[in-house]
Amino acid sequence: MGIISGGPEKTESKGFYEMLWDCGHCEMKGLLGKTQRHCPNCGAPQDADKRYFPKEGEEKRVDGHKFEGSDRHCPSCNAPMGLAAKNCAQCGAPLDGSKEVKAIASKPAPAPRKKIWPYVVGAIVLVIVLIWFFFIRKKDATLAVTGHRWERIVALEKYGDWEDEAWKNEMPSNATGPSCVKKERSQKKVEDGEECHEEKVDKKDGTFEKVNKCKTKYKMEPVEDDWCTFKVKKWKKFDEAKAAGTGMTATWPPNVPAADSPAADGAIRAGEKKEKNILEFGKKGSCDVENAKWTKYKDGDKVKLEVRARSGELVCDSF
Asked: Angle at CA 167, nearest 5°, toward 162 and 172?
């Protein structure tokens, strides 16, 4: 039973926490992004672009925090100011035209991987070219017919009680003596708990939010039904009559019963008929063709057709 994830993703906030920053002017590290906008050691302003997430277990929760919007960089001194501020608390400049601080990704961006798809595509193209060259490429040829072969086959059907099997709801109405067992007929998708993971989202105001994201998990369960073995009166192939030979005069097998024999226990009738008409081309091989082409060409006639360029194998559907 496979597990399948699906359905809309549900999110649940687990609270807000302080981002951290390190002072670039002194040795102070791990300063709080929301409550310490300036370094308490040297007074230098916070660089919002260098905030980072604290280590697991060292987060400082901001109880009662209400997110009002991302910080903006002061156009004059570049200090991070809250969205509600009209003027910079650092230098007093108006914050009109200020730009939003950038968000910090919760996980480091993966290193760029070397592109291998051009090599994969190149290898696939090379394989296709080689397959075409060695196995598919064709050329025209003119070959002489060296002989004719034929085969005629008639299916023989008998009417009687034959054993058959089917799903219970698909049994024929004249079925007798059914014996049924439970068997998987299909599968259905059912819920199987949730698949959850936690993400840290930089709110760009000196805090980050822990968000729990969950998707419903599903599994496939078998749906059982009754699979039945029974007997039913019908015509069924039990043998076949064959005739084969060479030359251009083909005959059907003799002493074959009529196709319209009445349905009675033990009665036999002729069923499906099949024929093979084979033109021989000496060491080059032979082709099974329709009757009109088989009778059109006589022994010794030249025939234009295609052969595989490398192996010389006949392409029988080319003429």
From this structure: 50
Tell me how many helices (H) and strands (E) the chain has: 2, 14
1 burial type by CB count under 10 A (0-12 exposed, 13-18 middle, 19+ buried): exposed
Cα dist from 259 to 151, 244, 266, 268, 269, whole Å: 20, 21, 15, 9, 5
pLDDT tens, residue by residue, 192-218? 999 999 999 999 999 999 999 999 999
Query: Using one digit for the tens of pLDDT, what is the confidence trace for 244-260?
Result: 999 999 999 999 999 99
What is the distance between the alpha carbons of residues 109 and 293, in angstroms, rounded to a whole number? 69
What is the distance between the alpha carbons of residues 208 and 71, in angstroms, rounded to a whole number?
Answer: 13
Give me the helices (H) in the chain, please: 117-131, 291-296
**Dist. CA 38–CA 32, nearest whole Å:** 9
2 pLDDT higher than 50: no
Tokens representing residue 306 in the block: 């295609």
Task: Tell me the two tokens of residue 61.
Answer: 């929760």
Of 269, 318, 258, nearest to 293 (Cα)?
A: 318
What's the pLDDT band for 92 if we cut at 50, 70, 90?
A: low
How do residues 274-303 score in pLDDT, each as one tens digit?
A: 999 999 999 999 999 999 999 999 999 999
